[in-house]
Specification:
Layout: E1 3-10, H1 12-16, H2 20-29, E2 33-40, H3 44-50, H4 60-67, E3 72-80, H5 82-90, H6 103-107, E4 116-118, H7 122-132
Antiparallel strand pairs: 1-3, 1-4, 2-3
Bound molecules: inosine-5'-diphosphate.
Catalytic activity: a 2'-deoxyribonucleoside 5'-diphosphate + ATP = a 2'-deoxyribonucleoside 5'-triphosphate + ADP; a ribonucleoside 5'-diphosphate + ATP = a ribonucleoside 5'-triphosphate + ADP
Domain Nucleoside diphosphate kinase-like: 3-140
Active site: 117
Length: 143
């Protein structure tokens, strides 16, 4: 199995509801390591740039407004199959469809305010990590 990295964000609703520790606990218990982290309040332009692939979607305006509405914490997770493992931990986009025991199933309020973002492929993870972090910001664990 491949050691991978993925980009994760605790979204504004997650930070607002004091869920950073709860989300990090789930990452760590699943064996994912946080190798970079940064708290920031995205500008609208930064949110639009990050979600550029969704610019034609009907929810783009609301999504970027929401993502720039308050602080987020952005992290790089490292581990075996980190991309898929993080998606599993998050659950389905819509919390109504997300399994119990997942971040969104347990903690999210709506399809938009769904607590966490996670890259959906290894290829996108590389692009998304580079959107927020320079190579020197990543702190790999020595074993
Ligand atoms: P994902 O975050 O599970 O990968 P995407 O389809 O990539 O889901 O959508 C990105 C984000 O856009 C979602 O996490 C959610 O915040 C928001 N979103 C997705 N679909 C809708 C919708 O139908 N209405 C409002 N917001 C949505």
């Amino acid at each position: 199995m491949a050691l991978e990295r993925t980009l994760s964000i605790v979204k504004p609703d997650g930070v607002q509801k004091n869920l950073i520790g709860e989300v990090y606990r789930r990452f760590e218990q699943a064996g994912l390591k946080i190798v970079a982290a940064r708290m920031m309040h995205l500008s609208l332009a930064q949110a639009e740039g990050f979600y550029a692939v969704h610019r034609e979607r009907p929810f783009f305006k609301d999504l970027t407004k929401y993502m720039s509405s308050g602080p987020v914490i952005v992290q790089v997770l490292e581990g075996e199959n980190a991309v898929a493992k993080n998606r599993e931990l998050m659950g389905a986009t819509d919390p109504k469809k997300a399994d119990k025991g997942t971040i969104r199933g347990d903690l999210a309020a709506s399809i938009e305010e769904n607590v966490a973002h996670g890259s959906d492929s290894a290829e996108n993870a590389k692009i998304e990590i580079a959107y927020f972090f320079a190579a020197a910001d990543i702190c790999p664990r020595t074993r």
